[in-house]
Every structure is written in C-alpha cells, then in structure tokens.
UniProtKB/TrEMBL annotation:
One of its GO terms (molecular function) is ligase activity. It comes from Streptomyces galilaeus. ATP-dependent carboxylate-amine ligase which exhibits weak glutamate--cysteine ligase activity. This is Putative glutamate--cysteine ligase 2. It comes from the Bacteria. Belongs to the glutamate--cysteine ligase type 2 family. YbdK subfamily. Its EC number is 6.3.2.2. The keyword Transcription regulation does not apply. InterPro entries: GCL_type2/YbdK_subfam, GCS2, Gln_synth/guanido_kin_cat_dom, YbdK. The keyword Nucleotide-binding applies. Keywords: ATP-binding, Ligase, Nucleotide-binding. It catalyses: L-cysteine + L-glutamate + ATP = gamma-L-glutamyl-L-cysteine + ADP + phosphate + H(+).
Length: 362
C-alpha cells in the first residue's frame, strides 16, 4: 500500500472581524512548547499563514483523524493568542500580506516583487510514495490530464481582496504568477526530469529545486510524488477525498507505466486551458474532459476520474469512500459554493469567514 501524506496551509484570522492576522510566529512559538506538535507546524511565506504536514499514512481513516486533530491543535494554539484558523484558500476580506523575514522569503520578495507580496494563498499538497525516481517521473507524465479535476473538486477561493472574483479557485490564478508554476510537458525519464530542473535552477530565475512549482513533481525532501494543484479544502473530509484520489492516480499511473501504456500527450497549452476552466467553473459548469480536452458536464468529468482510478481505489479499500465523497460534493458543493451561499444569504464577507472557521473544525 502506498503511503500518503497531506500538507495544508491555513489562514490565521481574527475571530471577531474575520480579518487575517500576521501572528504565525506567535502561534509557532506556542506549538513549539507542545512536544507532540514540535515537528508538525511550519512557517510559510506570509505571516498570516500557518502550514502543517501529516505523517505518511496507509489508511484514509488514519489520515482523516490526523487532519482533524491537527486542525484542532492549530485552532487551540491560535486561540491562545486571540486568533483562530480558517481553511480558506484566499482571504475574502481585504488584506495587506506581510512577508516573513527569513532570507529565502526576502529573496523572493526582491526577485518577484508584487507577485510575492500578494501571494497570500493557501493550498493543499498531497505526497504519495513511489519506489524510484523513474517510477515517479512516469507517474508525473501520466497524471497530467487528470489534475484539473482535482482543482475543480477542491475549489475554495471565490473571493479576493473583498471582491467576488467570478472564479471558483482564484488561488490557482494567483499561484500561476510564479515563473515555474503550472503543468509540464512529458519528461520521459528521470534523467530528463532532473536535467530540466537543473537547467531551471542554473537560470538563476528560481533559487533552488524546491522552487520548481510544477503541478506534479518529485519531492525534493521525500521519496514521493507531490501533487500541488488543490486549494486548501474547507472540510477535512474533502482533503481526505483529494488524497485518496491522488493516491489512486499515482497507483494507476505506475501500473500503466509497468504495463507499457504510453502517457497521453496533451500539450501544455491544452492543459493550461483545462486548469483555467476548472478554476473558473469548479463544479458549477462544464469542465474539459481529460481524455478529449472538450467541454463536458462537471459531473461526467468527475465520474470519469473515478472510473479511471476505480481499480486502484478498490484495491486500497477506498472506492466507496471516494464515490460517496464525490456524490456529496456534486450534491452539496465544494468550498467555493459554500462560501458563495453564505455571502448570498448574509451579504457579509465577515460572516463568510466566520462560517468557514466553523467548517474548518467540523
């Protein structure tokens, strides 16, 4: 069974006003006093953010329990200094992000200017174990068409700087400002993958390998493939659903590689269109079908993803969980739909944040 781990970025907000708070250093100091949390939480680019990482897990029940527990611990530590946490991929309310003072973040601020200063966005990254770099690159090549569906399922950022964006995942549009972000061409081998990464670092446009922000990449720290397309999910069970789908995509791609099945050679241009459509529509309108790159109803595209990985899901015992989770999202909506429903009902972005604080820990 491949292990899977999740990294989530949470927004620190004032529990009364809903405004983001630059208090990550204080929260991390609180967490450092707790032996169990010393290696769980990390500082992020902006002081209004808090990141955590789960342990590698083989079972989705265990992963779900850990995400819920750590979200609760994050809320507890934040509460001790008068803040709370919200699983929001962007801040609905206006904010002036403050960049952390370490050398890496200051280099980014100097190099990328306003793109760094405005990059207050929270994502969900999923790591899945692979046996080798060769297997990992074979996976990266074969999961490309399906990643936009994960973006649509996880979409949780319809507001930006106090305004309705017209997008379900505006976070993904902001993220694309990084020079190394987005879908990739086919690599074909680990040697070609590493050569491309080395060339990018040698260009001095990015600082190091960790700044290669491909949608799917080999992790620089772990023996994993890392999928980086999802918004941080409003509900913990949606994060687990995304993780289950990612593990199944990795397993399916690895099996295809071993069976000699060639990857689908969609161009980067078409993959970018699929990403844009997923960011715009989420689950509320048509998406681009990964097999054809033509418009299809969101429900049909989500069903196609589940069918594509059904064998791997069945083998891991996750098929019914995923089917139930997808049915629930299609019926009740993802985070973007929940946020808009609160906005339409109350007319208050503060109430949107307040509601999302509750959802984060439910």
């Amino acid at each position: 069974m491949r292990t899977v781990g999740v990294e989530e970025e949470l927004l620190l907000v004032d529990p009364e006003t809903g405004e983001p708070q630059a208090r990550s250093a204080a929260v991390l100091a609180r967490a450092a006093r707790d032996r169990a949390d010393q290696q769980v939480f990390e500082k992020e680019l902006h002081n209004q953010m808090l990141e955590f990482a789960t342990h590698p897990q083989s079972g989705m029940d265990e992963l779900a329990e850990e995400i819920v527990r750590i979200r609760g611990e994050a809320a507890r530590h934040a509460g001790e200094i008068g803040c709370t946490v919200a699983a929001l991929a962007t801040s609905p309310l206006p904010v002036r992000p403050s960049v952390g003072m370490n050398r890496r973040y200051q280099w980014m601020a100097e190099q990328y200017g306003i793109a760094t200063r405005e990059q207050l966005v929270c994502g969900c990254h999923v790591h899945v174990s692979v046996e080798s770099d060769e297997e990992g690159v074979a996976v990266v090549d074969r999961v490309r068409p399906w990643l936009s569906v994960l973006s649509a399922l996880s979409a949780n950022s319809p507001f930006w700087q106090g305004k309705e964006t017209g997008y379900s995942s505006y976070r993904s549009r902001v993220w694309q400002r990084w020079p190394s972000a987005g879908p990739t061409e086919l690599f074909g081998s680990a040697e070609r993958y590493h050569r491309r990464v080395a060339d990018m670092v040698a260009s001095a446009t990015i600082l190091d390998e960790a700044m290669v922000y491909f949608d799917a990449r080999l992790s620089a720290r772990y023996p994993t493939v890392e999928i980086r397309v999802a918004d941080v999910c409003l509900h913990a069970d949606t994060a687990v659903l995304v993780a289950a789908l990612v593990r199944a995509l990795v397993e399916t791609a690895a099996r295809e590689w071993k069976a000699g099945v060639e990857p689908v050679d969609h161009s980067v241009s078409l993959l970018r269109l699929a990403d844009w459509r997923a960011a715009k529509s989420g689950l509320t309108a048509d998406l681009l079908h990964p097999a054809t790159m033509r418009h299809a109803p969101a429900e049909a595209v989500v069903r196609a993803l589940v069918d594509h990985v059904a064998e791997a899901l069945a083998d891991s015992g996750d098929l019914e969980r995923v089917r139930t989770g997808c049915d629930g999202l299609l019926r009740h909506g993802n985070g973007a739909i929940v946020q808009r429903a609160v906005w339409e009902h109350t007319g208050s972005l503060r109430e949107v944040v307040t509601a999302c604080v509750r959802h984060t820990q439910s």
